[in-house]
Design brief:
Shape: globular
Strand content: 15-25%
Oligomer: single chain
Order of helices and strands: EEHHHEHEEHEHEHEEEEEE
Largest sheet: 5 strands, mixed
Radius of gyration: 17 Å
Length: 274
Amino acid sequence: MTKSKKWTTLSDRGVVLLNKKPAVAKALPTGRQVWRGEGVAYAKSYGLPKEKNMSKKTRVYSEKYKGPKPIKKQIQMIAEIFDLNPKFALEYAKNLPKLPEGAEGWFAILSLDVWPYFAPEYCKKLLRTLQEFEFFRPFCNIRASGMFVKLRFDTLCGLEGVHEKQKGDIWIVAAQLGARYRGRSVHEFHHIYSSKNEYGLPSFAVGSILLTHPERFSGNDDLSIDCAGDDFSPDGDGQYPASPAFDFCDGVVRFFVCNRYTRGKNSGSASFFV
């Protein structure tokens, strides 16, 4: 499918270029302080452009977001965006099981059949998904110069559970996009609050959902999404104290990194259910 790239640069909109490091910031847009571990400050790894019109009130979902689109429409959108075969997903969508408690609805995501989960291929595929945003809306990948992401083992186990029931390029999962764990850290989600059949949603899945639901982010006060299914190494040194996240500021969707141990009332961990 041929696309005309609408946004070639974001510099004219006051946002850092995709291939350059952002200016250092003292705090994340959600109000969470940058990660500090063993006396080492990682501010340079978490820096974000300064917000212009961010209010101080607690964030919620956008008023324009009315919940998941019809699942068949989502499947068709994912298939068109990534040039995939929707056959098996459309067949599975005909007889969906009961929606698990805590889920907001059914969402279409890329499957592990087309998504390698071993680094560095995982990072390359994640970049591929993030690049699709540039064709549809202003987007800034804060970490474009250093993508050290890995899929969590527990999330991989959850996705394997999905794989046992579904096949093909596109999967259907029951998920929630952050409201269930607003105000809780990613660490708390994994070790305290998540249910036995619940797993953190990885970046590629959150990206898939945001591509089919652009209205989820439409204002500065929209709840940010922590991608609890991934671990992130700010310095690429094998230490993973952080998690990827998405937010929205001044008309731009941003992909950045948050400290997994710090609470933020303006963000929440996304999760899926098996």
